[in-house]
Amino acid sequence: MLTLVPTPIGNIADISLRAMSALSEADTLLCEDTRVTKKLLHLLAERYSLQTKENQKFISIHSHNENDFIAALEPSFFEQNVVYVSDAGMPGVSDPGVALVRYCIENGLEYDILPGANALLTAYVGSGFLDTKMLFLGFLNHKGSERESGLNEALYSGYTTILYESPHRLEKLLKEIHESEPSRPICCAKELSKKFQNYFHGTADEILAKLDGNFKGEWVVVISSGQKQSSSAITQNDILELELPKKVQAKLISKITGESTKACYQRLLEDHT
Known about the structure:
By secondary structure, this protein is an alpha/beta fold. It has helices at residues 17-25, 34-48, 66-71, 98-106, 119-127, 144-156, 170-180, 204-211, 236-241, 246-257, 261-272; strands at 2-4, 28-31, 57-60, 82-85, 111-113, 134-139, 160-165, 186-190, 198-202, 219-223. The protein is 40% helix and 16% strand. It folds into three domains: 2-113, Cobalt-precorrin-4 Transmethylase, domain 1; 119-223, Methyltransferase, Cobalt-precorrin-4 Transmethylase, Domain 2 (2-Layer Sandwich); 236-272, no CATH class.
């Protein structure tokens, strides 16, 4: 049998009784990083007297070797108790694991998914945005047209949208959001469940000012829902690339963003100086 077990995203006390039971009974642990999993088991043994099987096996399975590992699998592998854990949070959410579930489905094998710690849902609730429809995009591509199209989807999907972001690119993301949607409310959740957990609310520019260059930590960015646009709709960047007077650009941008024409025009003048 396969069991996917979520692990704490920062606070060790968020481990569940069911998760500890599954970890203790596992014959084989499939791990995103075996070192991280062994450290977790050591901490659980110290704090909660977790006892594990004496001959537990640890196998590394991550995004780079997942497909090769599964291609070599035999259904008989799951006649033992197999547990998969990622380094933190729910396996399969921006982490490996889903392909193992698909393998079990296709081969008629028993599997279970335990509920537990999850940065996505924690940040979504903590944002305070009232729209109950949400879209999760994980990490955007780092650059190029794929990043631009991903950001446009986040801004103009019509849903509250959740992104994961690294401390090295958070500033870039906030500046990109400010450039496209300067008045859009967002929430940045920092270091969820950890000592320096914090929520920052406001526009992208306001949050940049609050952070004042301190982007350390793990981040979840929640973007409030805006006006939905079709994939073929014109974007603010498309308008800016047209050789039009700034007053005309401002009028067009105000139509797609909801920002006043006067505010758009003033922003275009400031960006040009």
